[in-house]
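Need fresh eyes. Consider my entry:
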Amino acid sequence: MLKWVFGTATLLDVEELHKTVDKMHRTEGNIIHSVNHQMTYLKSLDSAVKFNTEAVETLSEKVKAIMLDSNKWKDETDIAIHWLNYTIYNQSNTFTYIRQLEFAILELRTVVKEVLISLDSTMKGKLSVNLIPPAMLRNMLKNVTSYFPCGYTLCVSLQQNNINLFYEFLDISVLADYNSIKLVVLIHLKIFERHFYLKKVITFPYKISSLDNYIQLTAEHDNLVLDDSYQHFLLWKEAGIKKCRGKGIMICRADKPIYGTNVLNCEFSLYFRRDEADITAELLPSIHPTLP
């Protein structure tokens, strides 16, 4: 070029120039081929990117759908768990109620059994503690005492330690129909003149020197019964005492005569140590010799 500008070019220079142009033509072809190859690669990459983008969008939609489904499933699971907890709680309460009902039925059966046993006892004329507890009986008797005639009282006082005696003394009758059961209670009353103390007559053998033997005087009656004033008494044999009810405090049928102190009697005379002649006169028919 410089030679063309500044002077005449030689053939060698022209040949070099043609070679350089040819080389540039070949390089241009490579560049064009490389550019075409890069354009093809860019188009493939663009297609791949577009495909991947669509795939990512599709995957995102699926993930979004899965998340929505999982949220829905979570809500349904929460509802199911809540319902399960509620069901378990109700079942627990139901089991508790069933156990309480079974216990109540067992208690009812026990109470009914006790009532039946108590009614069997009342059929025999005896009041049962299970039918009327001591506290209830004490309150009932306390209310009844206000209606007693003048001079009459209960056979024993209403102290707490005496309540058990009433279960032995009271006579019970039962009136029943299809709807109810009524108890008729016979209460034994006392007056001052009919309150007596039981004294058992016990005789001891003693030695008679002239006979060189022992004798024992036997009274006709085994028991002497005195009132509070010691002015009246009854005579009672052991067989009659056994018919009385109670221990310590007894209730006996009023079928024996009451004597005054003016009546001469062996048992009464022995208790008050009256004249030995009067006592011996009454005891002579009952003298029995005994060996030491």
Summary: The longest strand covers residues 171-176. Confidence is low (pLDDT under 50) at residues 277-288. The chain has three domains: 2-97, 124-190, 193-290. Residues 11-123 form the longest helix (113 residues).
